[in-house]
Specification:
Elements (H helix, E strand, L loop, with lengths): L2 E5 L4 H17 L2 E8 L3 H4 L9 E2 L7 H12 L8 E6 L2 H9 L2 E8 L5 H6 L2 H8 L4 E5 L20
Parallel strand pairs: 1-2, 1-5, 2-4, 5-6
Antiparallel strand pairs: 3-4
Helix pairs in contact: 4-6
């Protein structure tokens, strides 16, 4: 049985995507795989890490507060049997697209970046729409969850 793949970070849109993906997994009886992709640190670029396929990260190597925060978001959907949360060291878009070949559906959130913020941080959702190897669902952030006039800020892990 193939699974539903979801990109997970600490942003409101990512949480919305996780909620949507969890509901879809329950409705269809599929497994859910959440990927928290941690971008490759610039310091590792000089040793040839960039361009290599994604690699799983030992949980002990992830900043404890970040790991606990992402795990708490994951736990908030009450994961079903066979559901998995993975931490990987890779560009978020590239990591999700690589895993999309094995998935039934890819689900990602979309941040509310505008202007220069969109150019600087890129767009994981746009990259996934252009390159995913399975159907892709983009879940927008609910603007009611953000305070008036406040736009989402990039977070560690998946950025859009």
């Amino acid at each position: 049985m193939s699974s539903i793949l979801v990109g997970l970070d600490l942003s409101p849109s990512s949480r919305a995507a996780l909620q949507w993906a969890a509901q879809q997994a329950r409705l269809t009886g599929r497994r859910l795989l959440a990927i928290n992709a941690v971008p490759i640190p610039t310091s590792l670029a000089s040793v040839g890490i960039i361009g290599m396929p994604e690699s799983a990260i030992e949980e002990s190597n992830i900043d404890v507060p970040d790991r606990e925060a992402v795990s708490a978001v994951w736990d908030s959907v009450r994961p079903g049997l066979g559901w998995t949360l993975e931490f990987v060291l890779d560009d978020p878009g590239r990591a999700l697209v690589a895993r999309s070949a094995e998935a039934t559906l890819l689900v990602v959130g979309t941040h509310e970046h505008v202007g220069l913020a969109r150019l600087v941080s890129g767009s994981v959702s746009r990259y996934c729409l252009s390159h995913a190897k399975c159907p892709t669902v983009i879940v927008p952030v609910d603007s009611r969850t953000l305070s008036s006039g406040q736009l989402e800020q990039p977070t560690a892990g998946l950025r859009d």
